[in-house]
Design goal:
single chain; 194 residues; mainly beta; SH3 type barrels; OB fold (Dihydrolipoamide Acetyltransferase, E2P); 3 domains; six-stranded antiparallel β-sheet; flat
Length: 194
Amino acid sequence: MLTYNEIKERKYIIYEGEPYEVMSAHVARTQQRKPQNQVKMRNLINGRGVNATFRTSDKVEEADISKKNIKFLYQKKDEMWFAQPDNPKDRFQIPVETVGDHNLKFLRENEIVKALIFEYDDQESIIGIELPMKIEFKVKDCPPNIKGDTATGGNKVATLENGTPLNVPLFINPGDIIRVNTVTGEYVERAEKS
């Protein structure tokens, strides 16, 4: 069981009988009232966002979420196909809604990701995936550099190898390999120059 102030970002909890991921938490203390934790969280089954307030007397159950490596194979319309990393014949499908829009932007074929498995009442179900914190992408296309561009002088929109648009510094060229933070969805650094 977690007390009100132990409910923090990236924790998985059971709220009203369903698993949630805590997206942000802020313990507010006012002069007249007891402290309370204002939490934004995402339902891991249907993806809906929920705001909740936990008071000092509240306790919640931590969700029993395990993780295992799986390999992304391909997407066909709304079907996302995965397999065990060591056995590509053992294929299974995860709905697009479960994968999540944010993860779709940075998912590539043959990428190893973690499946989030929720265990409740002796039932196991995959409720989401977790990408590596940083992934390297090849820049497929971006506007050309203009003389006078500097490393700190602004951004331009580049297209990554999987078709995702991303803000990058002006010195990035097509063919460069860059690292992207998959949590924030932002450029981190250039890994390899073309």
